[in-house]
Amino acid sequence: MEGRTLIYAIANQKGGVGKTTTAINLAASLAQAGERVLLVDMDSQANASHGLGVRIPHGEPSILEVLLGERILGEIIRSSCVPGLDIAPSSPDMAGAGVLLPGLSRREFRLRDALGTVLVPEQAYRHIFIDCPPSLGLLTVNALVAADQVIIPVQAEYFALEGLAQLLSTIAAVRERLNRQLRIAGLVLTMVDVRTSLARQVEVEVRTHFPNLSFRTIVPRNVRLAEAPSHGLPVCMLDPYCAGSDAYFDLALEVVNNG
Ligand SMILES: Nc1ncnc2c1ncn2[C@@H]1O[C@H](COP(=O)(O)OP(=O)(O)O)[C@@H](O)[C@H]1O
Ligand SMILES: [Mg+2]
User: Fold this and answer.
1) 75-to-5, 8, 118 alpha-carbon distances in Å
2) Mean pLDDT over each residue of the chain, to the nearest integer
3) Which of 92, 140, 193, 248 is at a distance of 20 to 30 A from 64, taking alpha carbons?
């Protein structure tokens, strides 16, 4: 496919809303559709790395060394279990980023500068997804500065919209000061229990508050999605015909079409 790389940050400072699940399965869906995709793991929990079968032992270089300027991105990128999908893995050492990064020059631009080194045409990734940690700290700011668009997973539960105002104002501040082209791709409802009226209420609420910013696709609660990481596989390789695979394939189509 022609065109430049599109970079998406998957962000929400709430934990457990489906960021990593969305990052892994969107990236894998696009790779399975034949595109070259890179997933960047910015969380010290390294769930995205583990979920794709990549585990970096303590002391070995990960995205942390890239952010610190000790390695270039190409040196730490690994291929994942999905053909066409590479991963820039995290490791538990990333927990130190919070104290190490603030003292550096261009501290908000560290990831953007690093991604610049893999945007050369011969190794060009068509899509890059950045899985953010559950905070609005410097790592998430780095992701927002590096990205063209933000995808915001929202868990379908009470208080689903709580905290969103703070996220949206962080995005607005980054857009104003650090990354003029940043835009919101959309909110995606995750872990939707389609049988409950609560899920329908939350969906109505999200679509009412964010009429132009909500993906049509909703991700149902699906046990295969929860099981897949323990196999080190995206859901489309564990069970290509389950509801979770269908949903993330549909979401990938929507993301690409909205490009
Ligand atoms: N649609 C879903 N159906 C069932 N379980 C899910 C779904 N999405 C996420 N999960 C599970 O919920 C937990 C939190 O999801 P995760 O993607 O890790 O969230 P985050 O990255 O925002 O912390 C994980 O155990 C994950 O496997
Ligand atoms: Mg996560």
Assistant:
1) 20, 22, 11
2) 94
3) 248
